[in-house]
């Protein structure tokens, strides 16, 4: 059995929710520290990231990995997958939906087979599994 891999991030927050701000650091990879603030989350993007943007990054990455593996196992490895995730946050309700969009360059696969694998990848992706309490939509296009 493989050893579990633990990834870490941390946040320093100063002040209250509405006027405060902070930084989030990707501790495991050490590839960056990002400013965070309520205004970007609830009002308008203002040059800082949000938990929802970080979830979108994680989800689009995980989905791409899952779909690429499923396509390879199908004998039709992708040339390229362009995946985006849109995470909707509503003040007072929280995260209300996530929508994945993938444009895939895959040779030798039928549209039906591709759509089945794309949907399966959405269901099997570990981030999708972690977020399954939230509606997750998918638009998958074979190019």
Automatic annotation (TrEMBL):
Gene3D superfamilies: 3.30.300.20. This is OsmC family peroxiredoxin. It comes from Georgenia faecalis. It holds the Pfam family OsmC.
């Amino acid at each position: 059995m493989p050893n579990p891999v633990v990834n870490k991030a941390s946040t320093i927050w100063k002040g209250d929710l509405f006027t405060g701000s902070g930084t989030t650091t990707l501790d495991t990879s050490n590839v960056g520290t990002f400013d965070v603030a309520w205004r970007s989350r609830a009002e308008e993007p203002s040059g800082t990231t949000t938990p929802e943007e970080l979830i979108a990054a994680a989800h689009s990455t995980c989905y791409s990995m899952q779909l690429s593996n499923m396509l390879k196992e199908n004998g039709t490895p992708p040339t390229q997958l362009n995946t985006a995730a849109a995470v909707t946050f509503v003040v007072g309700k929280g995260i209300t939906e996530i929508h994945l969009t993938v444009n895939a360059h895959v040779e030798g696969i039928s549209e039906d087979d591709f759509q089945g694998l794309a949907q399966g990848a959405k269901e099997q992706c570990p981030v999708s599994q972690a977020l399954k309490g939230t509606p997750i939509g998918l638009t998958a296009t074979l190019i």
